[in-house]
Amino acid sequence: MSDTLVEIENLRIAFPREGGMSDAVRGVSLSLGREKLGIVGESGSGKSLTGRALLGVLPSYARISVDKMVFDGIDLTAASPKLRRSLRGGRMGMILQDPKFSLNPVMRVGLQIVEAIRIGDKKLPKREAFKQALAVLEAVHIRDPERVFSLYPHELSGGMGQRVMIAMMVVREPDLLIADEPTSALDVTVQTQVLSILDELVTRRGMGLIFISHDLRLVSRFCDRVIVMYAGQIVETLRADRLNEATHPYTRGLLACLPTIDGPLDPLPVLQRQASWLEARP
After folding, report:
1. For the domain that residue 4 is a member of, what is the CATH number?
2. pLDDT digits over 165-196, tens only?
3. For the chain, what is the domain count?
4. Where are the alpha helices (H) located in the chain, listed in sequence order?
């Protein structure tokens, strides 16, 4: 098992528009070990598209090109559709921002977890799959898992729904987990609990985690490394605990927009788009 889980070189993603193609991701290169890698940037910077490209779940009309995309020694650019499908939900998982749009609204959540388990092992007896589903609900710190097992998605709170999604993604013990804004709709207390669960899973199972967010403070506290994206490109990469030492003007601008409780009540600074930022990569 390799320490380097993911290697991406020169990833480009474009979408058709009137008169040609619009570039959404432009030359992204990154690597990931068994660590927590944060990707931050404003909406539309290409964070989620990069994660979806890795899983192979981009829309059919997207045009993608990449020089290298490797997952734990597997060349994803040469992998068959069957192999890509077997990796998704097995060795690679993705937690989306809002569980209400990810869970089947007319199916009890426990049965959805059972379905994910049995897709990976079709010969597994249903009774054993039920036991595993209850065990993983307990592993993500859901009290009374038997009761939650029988609930429908609309009966879950936001935090509980997110935990169910995490349970569904980790029940098959993936090597890579992509979390796309998994805490943005949660209050601070529940957010802390969800992050604690993810941290425990990375530490205990040796997973690699890509944590996509726009919250710089959250990423600096939670992740090991941070990638900052702007207009489809990576403009800066640094250790999370050194985010305040960032030198790129875009990263400095984002940091300057973070309000402080005891600071002056000055207007927040406005970021002016500069083409030169894309060339300034310390």
Report:
1. 3.40.50.300
2. 888 888 888 899 999 988 776 777 777 888 88
3. 1
4. 47-55, 81-87, 109-120, 126-139, 145-149, 158-170, 188-205, 216-222, 249-256
